[in-house]
Amino acid sequence: MILNMAAKPELFGTDGIRGVAGQYPLDQSTVLKIGCALGTVLKNSSTSVRVVLGKDTRESNEWISRALAGGLASTGAQVVDAGIITTPGVAFQTRRHEFSAGVMVSASHNSYEDNGIKIFSPAGTKLAEAQELAIESLLKTLPELPDPPKNAAQFVPGWVEEYVDHLVSLIPAGLDFSPYRLVVDFAHGAACRVAPLLLARLGIKPHALNAEPNGRNINLHCGSLHPEMMVETTRALGVDLGVAFDGDADRAIFATREGRLADGDHVLYALAPFLARHGNLKGGAVVGTLMTNLALELALARDGIGLKRTAVGDKYVLEEMLRSGISLGGEPSGHLIFADLSLAGDGMITLLEVLRLLAETGQSFDELLRGYQPFPQLIRNVRVREKRPLESIPSVAQAITECCTELGERGRVVVRYSGTEPLARVMVEGAEAQAVEDHTTRIAAAIEAELGLRD
After folding, report:
1. 28-43 and 129-139 are packed helices; what angle lies between their axes, rounded to 10 degrees?
2. Which of 9, 155, 176, 291 has an alpha carbon within 20 to 30 A of 202's alpha carbon?
3. In terms of Cα–Cα distance, which of 381, 384, 396 is closest to 426?
4. Is 178 a catalytic residue?
5. pLDDT in tens, 55-93
6. CATH classification for the domain delimited by 377-451, as one of 3.30.565.10, 3.30.310.50, 2.40.50.100, 3.40.50.2300
7. Catalytic residue among 74, 100, 108, 121, which?
């Protein structure tokens, strides 16, 4: 299968605008214009524009936030600074206080050199593509703006505490999570500001990892993208559960007491049947993506639960959930959405739902995952100089066709361009590990030969 990204906006990828801080489109001049363009677009539908602005722990966040606020203020928008907070925390506050938009400055799981701008609608969902296109169109016409003032945004304390109050309110009455022992990897990110307050309210004193952000260590060999330390510490200490967040805490990856890594597919495997038995799985199905493991689809089918696939990206998962009336969905990356609780992927809510599962079943996470064995799956990234349609390249198309023929119904092939980076992603999945390795290597080599970056 070949999937070419058909995203129409040039700057906005599947998760906002992302790049290297200080370089286009995240240089100060362009960020100022992005703020101005956003404020202008918002004024088209409202005479009074209010925007809440949050950020993670990257060193570039201060000047990027100041530039965004300055651009917004130049259009007459009122900007409220929520400080360091998680991305889903910004989404919650946007919806709760009926802001015209919410903006999170974060590059999620990327290293500190990168940064990004995520924009939320008043409903707490990602900005509609039509508005993204309108912002990009305006950017091309705006003149250079003066340097932003330092006080364009008003800092108001208490946003994180209010968000934590909301999270605690989601826990069913009578459940006590205090007996559970946890290892928590904060990824030196925004979780450092939110998770300790939440866990204290739950009566949990975690074994903390990577909870000392310095502006440059966010996601550095830690967090959901690098969970090895969390997994090993969970096994070594014999605690009930390990969890690793990413830089803005919209993802959560877990570890069991026995040291088994549990990604988003594992969580869906454990939670979907549980919710279905209690009549809480709306739509009788789960929404995944093209990267969702085939073994999960087969396992859910045995319980009479369907799986609908979308393109990669939580915005596409949510769109399908809302279209089909499905309450649970997510990605292997640990970005899960519980639509009855929040329309944004939220690592804190995912943790609460896993703890609820343990408490209500009385089983360990190891026991709940015992019947699930993912198919071998290999993902290889190829850096590309351009994103030419893959089906137009004979050598690439031939390699993919031969792989699909050999794997048949017991395997899958997904080749697509990243929505946020200059990468072609090759994913091959099948029952035989060696065949997966061989085909992944061949397809990646074909892409490298035609599109790879050259010195």
Report:
1. 120
2. 155
3. 381
4. no
5. 999 999 999 999 999 999 999 999 999 999 999 999 999
6. 3.30.310.50
7. 108
